[in-house]
Design a protein that fits this description.
It comes from Rhizophagus irregularis. This is MYC1. This protein is mostly helical. It has a domain of 142 residues: Serine Threonine Protein Phosphatase 5, Tetratricopeptide repeat, CATH 1.25.40. It is built from 17 helices and no strands. Helix 6 runs antiparallel to helix 7, helix 7 runs antiparallel to helix 8 and helix 8 runs antiparallel to helix 9. The protein is elongated, with a radius of gyration of 29 Å. The protein starts with 10 loop residues before the first helix and ends with a helix.
Length: 370
């Protein structure tokens, strides 16, 4: 095949051939492949597609195969200089996302948080120069989730403060995008303060999230916020009214839509809310919850509902005692077990003495003994 009039010296074809030959060496001889990729970058007179691809493969080899994280960071920084004009915006964005995914995902072994931060800092700098605000926000959110997962709360707070400041910039034409970002920020803060048990901040953030009117949020984000809303029950009065029930149901529905495993835990909260309200409605009668009635992870919960509806207080106590991992291992559920048993015992006693006009007080006490 001829190289055509656009490439009279055949350099483009040579670089293409060199690239695929180098790629073929990756598995058997990664060092040789790395040398060939470096040669491609050096031979390219202007920054172009093959140099970009060579740097992408070099970064991957150095990080995932050779475990030289510092060298991988340098080739990544070099690759970022190609994103302005050498390749299309879509291709560069896809490449950046893929690299950040395997760097943050632990595929190349444990990474020092300072090195991880440098990868993201290099990315943010390049995106700022390219005026790619959309990907910059997406990248910051990706890093925020990593800090949350790693328990790096000081770093997370700083990053979320920067993200929140960015929502104050720009005109009114992008209110929906700002609202969506704010809800993402609030969801991350809720998860952080839930782990650190800062309940005052949880309340503040939940009520702040309710003020956001223009947002197209991911179901996972809505699930986090609504779960928080369901848990905000007056600590002294412990008022279980329609609002927690509504919030837990919305949280479960959104987690379910997002495919999040947290839906199972929130379903337990929803059942707890039904029972504490003294509702006669079976929480598994709805279209959304019915498919989970036979789920092994919540069998103890469905058994508890049955015992509650039959006013079988001894059976309910037995279920709670034998399924601690389901109930008392969760701090939120554990804090309301006493209330649940009190409510059940009260209803049991009412049903027990209802047929009588007079009775000896020793009768109910004997009946409720184990």
């Amino acid at each position: 095949f001829g190289s055509g009039g656009d490439d009279p010296d055949g350099t483009g074809v040579d670089l293409e051939n060199m690239y695929y030959l180098a790629k073929g060496k990756k598995d058997d001889n990664p060092e040789a492949a790395l040398g060939d990729f470096k040669a491609i970058v050096g031979l390219e007179e202007e920054k172009g597609e093959w140099g970009f691809k060579a740097l992408k493969q070099s970064t991957k080899l150095l990080y995932l195969v050779l475990h030289r994280q510092a060298d991988a960071l340098e080739t990544y920084k070099q690759l970022l200089t190609y994103t302005k004009s050498a390749v299309t915006r879509n291709y560069s964005e896809k490449t950046i996302n893929n690299i950040l995914d395997y760097v943050g995902g632990g595929k190349g072994g444990k990474i020092d948080v300072d090195v991880l931060e440098k990868f993201y800092e290099a990315t943010r700098t390049a995106l700022k120069e390219a005026k790619n605000e959309r990907l910059s926000v997406k990248t910051n959110l990706k890093l925020a989730k990593l800090w949350l997962d790693r328990g790096e709360y000081s770093r997370l707070k700083r990053l979320l403060a920067d993200l929140q400041a960015s929502t104050q910039q720009g005109g009114d034409e992008d209110q929906s995008a700002k609202g969506t970002l704010l809800q993402e920020i609030y969801a991350l803060e809720i998860q952080m303060y839930n782990v650190t048990k800062n309940y005052k901040k949880l309340k503040e953030i939940y009520y702040a999230s309710a003020q956001v009117t223009s947002a197209i949020s991911h179901p996972r984000v809505v699930g986090v916020i609504k779960e928080c809303g369901g848990k905000i029950v007056d600590a002294k009065k412990k008022q279980w009214e329609a609002k927690p029930l509504k919030d837990f149901f919305s949280s479960f529905h959104n987690y379910d839509e997002a495919g999040s495993p947290q839906r199972i835990q929130v379903l337990k909260y929803l059942v707890l809310a039904y029972l504490l309200m003294g509702s006669e409605i079976d929480p598994f009668d709805s279209q959304e919850t019915k498919p989970y009635k036979g789920n092994p992870q919540i069998k103890a919960v469905t058994d508890l509902v049955t015992a509650y509806q039959r006013r079988e207080v001894h059976e309910a106590e037995k279920i709670l005692r034998e399924n601690q991992s389901t109930f008392t291992d969760d701090p939120f559920i554990k804090s309301y077990i006493g209330d649940l048993l009190r409510a059940l015992r009260t209803q049991y006693l009412i049903a027990l003495i209802k047929p009588y006009t007079r009775l000896d007080l020793s009768f109910p006490s004997k009946t409720t003994e184990h």
